[in-house]
Fold:
Amino acid sequence: MDRRPPSTRILYLAIFAALWMGAVDARLSYLQLFKYSDYLARARRQQQRIVEVTPLRGNLYDRNLREMAMSISLDSCFAVPAEISDPEMVARLLAGVLGVHTEEIETRLDGSRSFVWIARKLQPEIVERIQALNLRGIYFQKEHRRFYPKGELAAHVLGYVDIDDRGLGGIEYQFEQQLRTPASRMLVLADARRRWYERHGPNQARDTSLVLTLDENIQFIAEKELGAAIARTHAKAGTVIVQDPNSGELLAVANWPTFDPNSAGSSAPEARMDRAISALYEPGSTFKVITLAAALEEHLTHADELIDCQMGAIYIGKHRIRDHKPYGMLTVSQILSNSSDVGAIKLGLRLGPEKFHHYIRAFGFGTASGVELPGETRGLVRRVEAWSAISIGAVSMGQEVGVTPVQLAGAISAIANGGLLYRPRVVREIHHGGLIVPETQEPPARVVRPETAATLRGMLEGVIREGTGKKARLNGYTAGGKTGTAQKIDPATGRYSGREYISSFVGFAPLNSPVVTVLVALDAAVGAHGGGDIAAPVFQQVTQQTLAYLRVAPDTPLQPATEQAAGPHPQQFVKEEDLSDFDPAQVADATAAAVPGPEDFSSRDAKGAEPAAKSAHATVVVEDGEGIVVPQFGGMTVRNFIEQCMRLGFNPVPVGTGIAVDQLPAPGLRAHPGSRVVVRFTPRAATQTVAQKEK
Amino acid sequence: MPRSIRPDRWLFLTTVALCLIGAVMVFSASAVMAQSTYNNAYGFFVRQLAALVLGVAAMVALARVDYHKLRQPAVVFTSLGLILLALCAVFFLDRSHATHRWIRLGPAGVQPSEFAKLAVVLYLAWFLEMRRQSRTYGVNDAMHTLAPALGPVLALVLLVLLEPDMGTSMMIFLIALAMLFEAGLSLRYAAGVVLAALPVIYLLIVRVPYRYNRLMAFLHPDSDPQGKGFQLLQSLIAVGSGGFSGVGLMGSRQKLFYLPEAHTDFIFAVICEELGFLGGMVVLALFVIYGWRGIRAALAAPDDFGRLLALGATVLVVGQALVNLSVVLGMMPTKGIPLPFISYGGSSLVIMLIATGILLNISQHADQG
Structure:
């Protein structure tokens, strides 16, 4: 084999390769050593994003841990215009999905090269449709939005937030510090698919939620009855408070007018006012309870002392004060039950200004109650030195003092619980992650002796049994309470208005071991305005239903249902036969228990109930321009209720579990599709227990 | 025939080092993507390791087989025929995508185009040695040397081009050109071949939109950073942001879906980002050593077959590495060419190791002089 010397050409190839490699090396050095900072900046720009993080707010729960306010995660859509090659087309497509003008989006896309919001806090189906467009340069970011699942329920206590999730009212405002994680700008590292894989910024995992003292069921009862009363009386405003007299915890705080915190911005400012703590009014006759409590505590009188009510007129100095009715000799009890002004004034005169003033303050008037809500009014109790000659008389019958509903409810609770004044509370516990911090309850102040309170309770029972508050009488329960009808001061003249009244009733039940204190105040009712006529029935409705809901055992024999004060909602019922549909195991009990129930709606003539029930299930929708007729949901299960709402296009809001017992709006009313229908459900066991107790 | 006792240690260790860097970097570059796409972070890594085991076995085996045993028509034409058959077969077997590159064998897949490179090296080494020794036909005999030499090569190039895989077909063409050049191709012919290829290449680029876009992206990377220029730009950002010492192993951010093909063709960008200039230089140095040892083996080869074979194998590895590095660094338009030993891809890895095995064997036959 003839071997030739190795070709030199291979060396040319080697040199060529070496030169090439040298070029690669130079290029590598150039990129990594000389252009390092440029490329690092470019890398940072695309990999890191400063993201404004909407802080996550803690949830609000009612006392049974049902969500009253929660933060839901929604996607917000943003664009990186630099990545969009055809902004006009992108704008047109997005505008189609979002239902806005193409130009509007185009303008936004022109606004920045790197980041513009397209639309914030979008509904999931919109997000899906945008994602389906598969547009380059369009991205989503999770943001939180406050959501109040129960709509208007307890709106004033819960409060509301602004677009940036800052609390502006109620608990949301008062507990802003605890509920809100401080706003933060967060540096995140994002991959090319815009998922964050690393972030630098404050830890977002803070989880603080508040458990309120409210009970959504009782709140519902209060709001529903208040709403019905407003509709009946055409009052301008109103308040219902349900308080646990043994702890000061507020179980329900209902105000009218009200608002939906989900869209607080579109409500009137006066609708957002929490009248329960900020509406100052002259209590009128309800304040006589305080006058009597002070007189009794000071041993200046006793329940059976006869007092001459001077046939309805008394002179204080030169001023003649006329009673609403001329009374002769009345016992102290009768003074209260008949609400004699002259009698109350006489007792006030016995006390004298100093002592009286002392008791007024001791009962919590003229001082902020300390409830954990913003905007509370202190009330108006003038210093003794500022009292005029007739002040003692005026104050004795509830004039010349300004109180808030929550103050008066607290004072009556003190009578109910044996003389202890608790700070009214709306917050029960604060949950920090897994840690539960109960709100501290400072020891209550003793205002009057237990004997004084007991005497007063007996007298207050008389008001309901035989006095001005007959319409407050409960079925199956004893109760005590006091009516009040106060003339409003006309702000224009500073004098008492002859036409506008605050009609109120405040009381508690059951009499000897009160479970609830209920205050009802209606502002400027049209027509009948006597507290005993229009506020007492509301007390009766709210208290009756609340006690049944709380499964409080009746302490007096039940009256036949027909003898009750006519309930404002004759449509409401649970037909006992309906129960058997839901739980076959209870058929026997249910049929056996076809006895009048304590709740006015729990039992009716079966014949009368039948057609209504049929129509409820048959989904008869009558449409005539103004919305859809809301059907009767009574007796349905939560599921049936939701299904039927879906069919009709309503937004179902179930409250509680079990069988539907109450609803808002009432059956037969018209509502627009998409509007909220709140229905309260009670466990069927409760109905059973009560029904059996009746036998 | 004089033989050294031991194969080239430098070459062997360089190859092992490149393979290990490759395995680690494939894992680093693919883990997140594999986790998100296949829900298995180790998917690519495990496959690469399997190919590595297979390839190292083939390399060790071939290093022990006297390369002269390859100098038989039976070996040369069998391999050439099988590759041609396989390249035709992909058109019928791989209809799943728009491309026809793969033959699926159970869980693994084979890319015949990778093996075509080796077949070309073998065929040309055999044929050109024959012509160099022939007294009848010179190397520059167009009819009897160039036509039969380029015929099968162009057939392979055409088939690979139709897959379509322009990168690999150009690579095959370059290897053939280098070997012809070494065999003594007259510069007139060499220029002619290149000139003849230019209009073809031009048409292939201008007429095929994605190739045209790649060219445009190469020329103007910033004109459309989110579109055509995206890949190159992301590659440059990865390399540039690595700096001198890199962001640390596994620390690449560009691999998180910014840089397409991070674990295959653009793995060098991830190396540069994670290991910095130092890491990049190590890889370059290893290829330099490989080239040096390859040329050395070629020069020391006792015969033309050995020299041409060694040169072909060296060009196969180092030439491809240079093209890949140039693409990643933005010095050449984007092509689908993996970085030898390092990029993910079983066929490529096995072929490179086989070529290295042959080279190792040739190095044992070095002239003592």
Observations:
- Chain A has four domains: 11-49, 53-212, 216-263+277-566, 581-694.
- The CA atoms of residues 68 and 149 of chain A lie 6 Å apart.
- The longest helix of chain A spans residues 9-34.
